[in-house]
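User: Continuing from earlier, I have the next pair ready.

Assistant: Great, send them over.

User: Here they are, in order.

Assistant: Folding the first of the pair now:
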Amino acid sequence: MTTSAGHAASRLDIRASTPEEEVLRAAEALVAAFGAHDVARYFASFTDDASFLFHNTERLITSRAAYKQMWRSWERDGFRVLGCRSLEPRVQLVSDDTAVFTHRVRTRLAGEDSEMRERETIVFHRDAAGRWLGVHEHLSVDPQEGERRQS
């Protein structure tokens, strides 16, 4: 005899996710939103007080709102993301609710002939609702010539 709870469980894919898997999924969603130039979804991947440090900006950006304002000014100048790929993703769990995500990132932008080759670190924090959100992003130029696919 199958109980209704047992029957329901057999119909659902119930797997316990590890924090590392959860962070990887959050990072994949963030990269997908960025690659699709889905501004709302991309910025929703960060906390309000997230900070951003990019190799192509003069200073640390100290909030999501300040970054979004900068993004909008780039768009007025023709900025548009056409695609983004993540290579060699890695998650380092620092505590139960903090993780460091690193990867090599390849981005195609409108008006650019070649793909941008960068390395990125995003510090994620799990909020009270259980969502992993970026609290800091650091982007640098990737000196690596060859590429290795996601592992």
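And the other member of the pair:
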Amino acid sequence: MRLSDKTKQTRHLISQLAKGAHTHLVTTHRDPDMDAIGSMMGWVACLKDLGHHVHAWMADPIPEWLHLQVDVGDIVSTIPQPQYDVIWVLDCPNDKRVSNLDALRGCQGVMVNVDHHVDNTGFGDYAVIEPVSSVGELLACMAHEAKLPVSPPVATWWMAAIVADTGRFLFPNTTASTFDTVRWLIECGGDMNHVTQFLEESLTSTGLEAIRQALNSVRLDPTGQVALAILPDGMEEGVAVIRLLRQVKSIEVMAVLRSLPSGDIRVNLRSKQRVAVNEVAHQFGGGGHERAAGLTLSMPINEAAGTILTALTDALS
């Protein structure tokens, strides 16, 4: 387990904020993934174990595929009070990724930005940015450094965040430090069996049908190196579709599109080696990591598909 010298210099401050503050608000980005929810719920439980008053806040509903443990039901959709000692914003490269930014800006408190995206803007009163596998790994390292309590539920949430964001330890963001962190979380009582069963063996028959429809929508560029899929409305199995596309040897970069309730189109991008998909996402106001990024487009979904397919094909040329 390791943290950069810069973050180690702030560990006393983080420890002071975590241990000394009494009221906390914890949030993460819109359209959450397992790293977002796992990091948030683990940090909330860790702070509660210190005896503090903590609220987990997300303006949008949490998809069923992220309900790893029962405490996910404790997330509130409106900010319960106007002021907190500390506001923790997790896994957001910029504050605009928060689903109701106006509500967050209307809440008073010291804001701490904890993230692992290299393009993080450094917003907030304090920023802890580490290019590790996941915010789950970062928080676990912070907790280890600050000697914070890590119960089995906390460890399980953070393990799920790490497992998901490393692609089950297959992505290049998996390091020796990542495995050290997971080993420590298991020692803290984290339930890896529950994590793997939930992530790997909880697909419903409805989800299976949704994946079938998504695979029927797949478009390839003329070289067969770019793949794009459109998810049917209401589908939550986008990660499963991406994992299947990655198994095709010739496919280098892939995109999965789905319609949001707002009418906008959410685009998730992944690549194997040759394309920095965060650079593609930046062209459209999005962002993320070199091998995993996302963006939102305001246009019909077929037009969005053509736009993204062209952008990814150009990035490969």
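Worth noting for the second one:
The two ends are 39 Å apart (CA to CA). The mean pLDDT is 91.
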